[in-house]
């Protein structure tokens, strides 16, 4: 019966190979752990400790999903296949070697069929590994996409992994070439290579000697890989899953982390490495430098100084360079904000969440960016335009610097007068939002929305002048106090009303109302696209016309990625008789218009190409699409401008989804 | 050194202003009061001086709706003491105010008094010179930069037409601030809220106001618009042509012969 032989071909006079091998491995593992510990302890010695173990099962589930099955990695075909083939092969090799150890010292399992299967599986994964490694070599040395870090560290790691697998394959094949067992085909690749050795007609002794040399080399390469792992690019094998494990499992993406506080309940601002959390350093050391975040970042695409990947890597470098000075009480280190991370980069973020969605190991760039913005805001370090906007919010509750009494001016032409939800009971409370209320170019759309609600016979009302900006983006600018002030005013006004459901036309308001406002749990919050979709399926909203337009739909970040509303707007568009053609980047991967996170109140700065222009160019590439449909008031202004500046006025028209509904009624 | 900044609240012009049925003052029902923009600059200038020369900064304001927030904001920016003058300010004028405030300032004995150079509700002249007169101190207005040296202040004063004069003035003195050396800083709301919890406004009642010298307002009214705007429509070229001819008619544009 075929059976596994321990340490085949090791000369007898070498004593016990098991002793050497295990001592060596044990030593290597000890060195790895010590080196890793020396690195990792900086996370909580420099940063703020605070470990969270709650939701253990959920955390483990996430490690399995994202770390082992690598579902996020696989969501991009080429790099996904590449990485998963390499990683899964190593999981299998690791398990296979573990099985062999159990077999030789504890319990004989690798006998007969199980042994043959073991051989076969290992061999199949050798093939899978080489496919992955081949893809990696091609990508790293020929394709060279800009998002990759082209550095020797990655070449080393790739070379080491290839050498390890190659070493395993060669020793196996040499053994087969000498032994020529009848079951050799169970190791198909090993046997093919063995045949090569056999064809050289070398003697068994020569082959056994070669085997010995390669076996020793294989062992040493494994040892080198293990010892160098804590300083190599392979470190992410440990830190990646650790980051996945420790990332907060029960936080909705739409709910921002509050400002951290010290034991005296004083706020901690991220102005120095000392004030970052250990998790932020873990994330920095876990970053695989895959560059997915860079690839999808609208701020990066626009040519601003923000690159989410570099932002995370800057934290890594900062820790590496400044940790020992900090621990020795030396204050003469680089400024975290201003030197390591540039203020401009922080202000360039649109908080679109594309990076967070894309990151395979669940790094949250936005948390770090907003934390650092909070520090800038408390220091008053910001651009004058943004300052003026914030002062307007503080004084008037809107960025337009207009009186709150003007908020509902757009309702003047509507009959019958829209109910005042503060005085009358309504089913739906419509939270209109600043842009739809104050921007004169949008009042047409806001009025149409009201007309549709009237036609359907919706029982709805407004907060009138008691509504304030919801504060979603103010919070993301980092002005937490102002956010709280606006939120408290809105909540106080909302709590006085009798209603069942809040509807919003503004995705940003929707997000914070739904995920961050302390509003009574039994109140529903709907985006108007959700409401319309429900009314269509219940038969309350019927269309008389089929528009017959070819249209594409732009997912607003705060409705799409943040709140995963993808189907409702699409169903409404199709119900109006439009043919929906998707842009290459849609749904979870939709490309931001560039207005979020407070960007709309900041000067644009040096941009190569505005994100909104990039997006319009993407849309006009679609065959025959004449309408660009949005579901966010800010999008209307952003994209109508972009259509003009890109000279596409005769090709595509930007319309709010409500305009389609209005036209089809 | 000690600097006193006098700050007052003025009607916010964002709101529509209406005249009281009596016809001599503004209707206050819908009035929103905000800090006088120039006073805001005066506070900023005082804080800048404090940062350079560690002077003590005291901010004083008469009690109007919203004054607490203004004072706390000044405190959050770095003011050491905030004083609210209480009393009846319903028919206030700068003559009466200057007398009353000067009596308070005298007690504080500051080296320098800063205030905004003007305000949109200065019916009877700006308050700076009136304060200076009551305190019997020198006054410079339209100041856009201050440096302190022992018992003198070197100030930059802006004149129309872009001329700036630098002059030295012996302290104590009163300055009317046109602009601080840098725009008023932003204070985060949480900082103001924090200050509200930890600092106190020093409330000081004012005695009877002395209105003498204030001219009587006989009628207040919205200015009637006489001229009307001409809307130019048409293609960009037509609009440009029309604009050029209007400019020529008005003598703004002249033909140049080369
Ligand atoms: S949130 Fe969007 S803009 Fe900000 S770093 Fe991530 S991808 Fe870039
Ligand atoms: S932050 Fe995440 S997505 Fe970006 S490079 Fe690092 S691992 Fe990749």
Mind sketching the topology for me?
The complex is a heterodimer of chains A (665) and B (258).
Chain A: H1 17-46, H2 56-68, H3 71-74, H4 77-105, H5 113-143, H6 152-179, H7 188-199, H8 204-228, H9 236-246, H10 278-286, H11 292-296, H12 298-301, H13 308-327, H14 343-347, H15 354-358, H16 365-378, H17 384-396, E1 419-420, E2 428-431, H18 434-438, H19 443-456, E3 460-462, H20 472-477, H21 480-495, E4 501-504, H22 507-515, E5 524-527, H23 528-537, E6 550-553, H24 567-575, E7 579-580, H25 611-620, E8 627-630, H26 633-645, E9 653-656, H27 657-664
Helix pairs in contact in A: 1-8, 1-10, 1-13, 2-9, 4-5, 5-6, 6-7, 6-8, 9-10, 10-13, 19-27, 23-24, 25-26
Chain B: E1 2-6, E2 9-11, E3 33-35, H1 37-53, E4 56-62, H2 67-77, E5 81-86, H3 94-108, E6 112-116, H4 127-135, E7 139-149, E8 152-159, E9 163-170, E10 173-177, H5 189-198, E11 202-205, H6 236-249
Helix pairs in contact in B: 2-5, 3-4
The complex binds iron/sulfur cluster (2 copies).
Briefly say what this structure is:
With 665 residues, chain A is mainly alpha-helical. Chain A folds into four domains: 12-243, Fumarate Reductase Cytochrome B subunit, CATH 1.20.950; 263-379, Orthogonal Bundle (Fumarate Reductase Iron-sulfur Protein, Chain B, domain 2); 398-538, Rossmann fold (3-Layer(aba) Sandwich), CATH 3.40.50; 550-664, Rossmann fold (3-Layer(aba) Sandwich), CATH 3.40.50.
């Amino acid at each position: 019966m075929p059976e596994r032989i321990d340490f085949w071909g090791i000369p007898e006079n070498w004593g016990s190979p098991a002793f050497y091998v295990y001592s060596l491995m044990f030593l290597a593992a000890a060195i790895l752990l010590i080196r890793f510990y020396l690195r990792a302890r900086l996370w909580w010695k420099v940063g703020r400790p605070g470990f969270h173990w709650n939701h253990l099962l959920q955390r483990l589930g996430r490690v399995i999903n994202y770390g082992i099955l690598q579902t996020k990695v696989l969501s991009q075909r080429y790099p996904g296949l590449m990485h998963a083939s390499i990683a899964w092969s190593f999981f299998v090799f690791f398990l296979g070697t573990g099985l062999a150890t159990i077999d030789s010292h504890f319990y004989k399992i690798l006998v007969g069929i199980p042994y043959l299967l073991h051989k076969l599986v290992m061999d199949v994964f050798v093939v899978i590994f080489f496919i992955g490694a081949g893809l990696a070599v091609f990508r790293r040395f020929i394709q060279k996409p800009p998002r990759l870090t082209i550095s020797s560290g990655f070449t080393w790691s790739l070379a080491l992994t290839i050498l390890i697998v190659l070493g395993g394959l060669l020793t196996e094949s040499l053994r087969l070439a000498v032994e020529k067992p009848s079951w050799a085909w169970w190791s198909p690749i090993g046997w093919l290579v063995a045949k090569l050795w056999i064809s050289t007609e070398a003697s068994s002794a020569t082959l056994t000697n070669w085997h010995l040399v390669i076996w020793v080399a294989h062992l040493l390469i494994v040892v080198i890989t293990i010892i160098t792992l804590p300083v190599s690019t392979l470190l992410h094998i440990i830190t990646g899953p650790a980051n996945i494990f420790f990332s907060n499992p029960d936080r909705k993406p739409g709910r921002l982390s509050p400002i951290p506080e010290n034991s005296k309940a004083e706020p901690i601002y991220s102005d120095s490495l000392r004030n970052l959390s250990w998790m932020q350093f873990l994330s920095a050391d876990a970053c695989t430098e895959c560059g997915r975040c860079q690839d999808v970042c609208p701020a990066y695409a626009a040519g601003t100084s923000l690159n989410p990947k570099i932002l995370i890597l800057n934290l890594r470098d900062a820790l590496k360079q400044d940790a020992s000075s900090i621990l020795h009480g030396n204050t003469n280190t680089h400024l975290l904000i201003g030197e390591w991370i540039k203020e401009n980069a922080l202000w360039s973020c649109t908080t679109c969440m594309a990076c967070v969605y894309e990151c395979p190991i669940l790094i949250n760039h936005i948390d770090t960016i907003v934390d650092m913005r909070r520090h800038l805001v408390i220091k008053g370090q910001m651009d004058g335009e943004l300052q003026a906007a914030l002062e307007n919010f503080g004084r008037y509750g809107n960025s337009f610097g207009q009186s709150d009494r003007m908020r509902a001016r757009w309702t003047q032409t509507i009959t019958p007068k829209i109910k005042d939800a503060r005085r009358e009971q309504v089913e739906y409370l419509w939270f209109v939002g600043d842009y739809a209320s104050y921007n004169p170019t949008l009042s047409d759309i806001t009025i149409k929305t009201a007309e549709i609600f009237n036609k359907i016979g919706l029982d709805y009302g407004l907060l009138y002048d008691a509504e304030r900006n919801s504060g979603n983006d103010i919070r993301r600018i980092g002005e937490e106090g102002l956010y709280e002030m606006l939120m408290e005013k809105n909540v106080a006004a909302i709590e006085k009303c009798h209603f069942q459901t809040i509807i919003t036309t503004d995705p940003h308001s929707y997000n914070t109302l739904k995920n961050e406002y302390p509003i009574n749990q039994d109140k529903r919050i709907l985006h108007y696209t959700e409401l319309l979709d429900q009314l269509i399926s219940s038969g309350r909203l019927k269309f008389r016309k089929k528009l017959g337009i070819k249209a594409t739909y732009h997912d607003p970040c705060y409705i799409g990625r943040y709140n995963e509303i993808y189907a409702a707007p699409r169903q409404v568009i199709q119900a109006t008789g439009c043919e929906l053609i998707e842009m290459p980047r849609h749904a979870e991967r939709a490309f931001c218009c560039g207005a979020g996170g407070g960007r709309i109140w900041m000067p644009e700065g040096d941009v190569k190409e505005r994100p909104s222009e990039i997006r319009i160019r993407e849309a006009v590439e679609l065959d025959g699409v004449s309408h660009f449909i949005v579901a966010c008031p800010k999008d209307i202004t952003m994209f109508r401008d972009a259509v003009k500046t890109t000279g596409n006025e005769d090709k595509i028209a930007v319309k709010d989804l409500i305009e389609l509904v209005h036209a089809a009624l | 050194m000690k600097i006193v900044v006098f700050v007052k609240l003025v009607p916010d012009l964002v709101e529509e202003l209406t005249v009281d049925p009596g016809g001599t003052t503004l209707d206050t029902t819908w009035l929103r009061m905000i800090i006088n923009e120039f006073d805001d600059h005066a506070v900023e200038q005082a804080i800048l001086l404090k940062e350079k020369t560690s002077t003590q900064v005291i901010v004083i304001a008469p009690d109007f709706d919203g004054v607490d927030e203004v004072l706390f904001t000044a405190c959050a920016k770095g003011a050491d003491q905030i004083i609210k003058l209480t009393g009846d300010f319903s028919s206030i004028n700068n003559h009466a105010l200057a007398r009353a405030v000067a009596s308070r300032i005298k007690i504080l004995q500051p080296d320098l008094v800063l205030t905004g150079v003007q305000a949109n509700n200065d019916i009877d002249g700006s308050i700076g010179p009136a304060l200076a007169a009551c305190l019997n101190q020198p006054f410079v207005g339209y100041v856009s930069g201050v440096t302190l040296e022992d018992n003198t202040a070197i100030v930059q004063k802006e004149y129309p037409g872009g001329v700036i004069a630098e002059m030295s003035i012996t302290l104590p003195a009163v300055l009317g601030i046109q602009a601080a050396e840098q725009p008023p800083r932003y204070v985060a709301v949480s900082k103001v809220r924090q200050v509200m919890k930890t600092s106190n406004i020093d409330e000081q009642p004012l005695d009877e106001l002395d209105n003498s010298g204030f001219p009587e307002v006989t009628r207040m009214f919205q200015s009637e618009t006489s001229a009307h705007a001409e809307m130019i429509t048409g293609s960009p070229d037509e609009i440009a042509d029309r604009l050029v001819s209007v400019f020529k008619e008005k003598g703004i544009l002249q033909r140049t012969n080369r």
